[in-house]
Write a structure and sequence with these properties.
Blueprint (H helix, E strand, L loop, with lengths): L2 H26 L12 H29 L3 H34 L3 H6 L3 H23 L8 H30 L2 H23 L3 H10 L10 E3 L3 E3 L20
Antiparallel strand pairs: 1-2
Length: 256
């Protein structure tokens, strides 16, 4: 399967997942409650999955075309699209962590422990997925797009985000559906949209790279410390050690 065909099939997958989310919301309303399925948390997250998949596909196509055509306006448009993707992933992460992931951490059941482990662990895992994606975004934003390694690293990011979305749907959706009734899902869906829009506004009010670095310092679902990055000293982990100035080496691999 070629890379282009894979990206197209990825979009089709997330459209199908979005449809499943709508079906869930509509199924919940069969009990007679007059809730709009578009307000459901699962609908909103599924909608973002689709939008991000489309952005990945568009950006990969533009980067490939840029390699053939050179810089100029094409390079400017490509950077603007990458900024849009970065913003979308950051906003999704903040909103999902404060709604779905927190709800998973707060709703532990005996059945869940027997099948998927701790719901708290599941919420943290989903949050860590996006933290890793943010690290990859930071690395890509500090690597020139015309370097040979950029597109390869971008595809690793795409694969990691795809794996995260699959986990979010297969485990996060199923456990969230079991833990939340229709009214709770609707309330969290509205909160998700509010938090996402507030995050986008905050991102747009400052330098995108600065916001990304600050986001990496934020604790993950109550953990003690994030993984901070400073422009002049590299990455700072919990032990206070700094990384090297070059964060784009081939030996820095991340797992999904």
């Amino acid at each position: 399967m070629t890379r282009k065909k894979f990206s197209v099939s990825l979009i089709a997958l997330f459209i199908a997942l979005l449809t499943a989310g709508v079906a869930f919301a509509q199924g919940q309303n069969q009990q007679g409650t007059a809730q709009n399925p578009e307000n459901s948390l699962f609908y909103n997250i599924g909608n973002d999955h689709r939008d991000v998949a489309i952005l990945f596909n568009r950006l990969e196509t533009m980067v490939a075309e840029q390699d053939q055509m050179g810089g100029g306006q094409q390079a400017t448009d490509t950077q603007a699209l990458f900024d849009e993707l970065t913003t979308a992933l950051l906003a999704h992460g903040v909103a999902a962590e404060q709604t779905l992931y927190q709800a998973l951490a707060d709703n532990q059941t005996e059945q869940t422990t027997q099948t998927t482990g701790s719901l708290s662990d599941l919420g943290v895992q989903l949050a860590v997925d996006l933290h890793v994606a943010n690290l990859q975004l930071w690395e890509l934003r500090n690597t020139t797009m015309d370097s040979g390694i950029w597109l390869s690293k971008f595809r690793v990011l795409e694969d990691n985000v795809t794996s995260h979305f699959k986990r979010e749907v297969l485990y996060g959706y199923s456990e969230g559906m079991a833990a939340l009734d229709d009214q709770q899902a609707t309330q969290l869906g509205q909160q998700y949209q509010t938090i996402k829009q507030q995050t986008i506004t905050e991102i747009e009010s400052q330098d995108l790279n600065t916001y990304l670095e600050q986001a990496l310092c934020e604790p993950i679902l109550g953990e003690d410390q994030g993984f901070c990055i400073t422009t002049d000293s590299g990455m700072n982990g919990d032990d206070g050690q700094t990384g090297t100035d070059d964060q784009t080496g081939d030996d820095e691999q991340t797992t999904s």
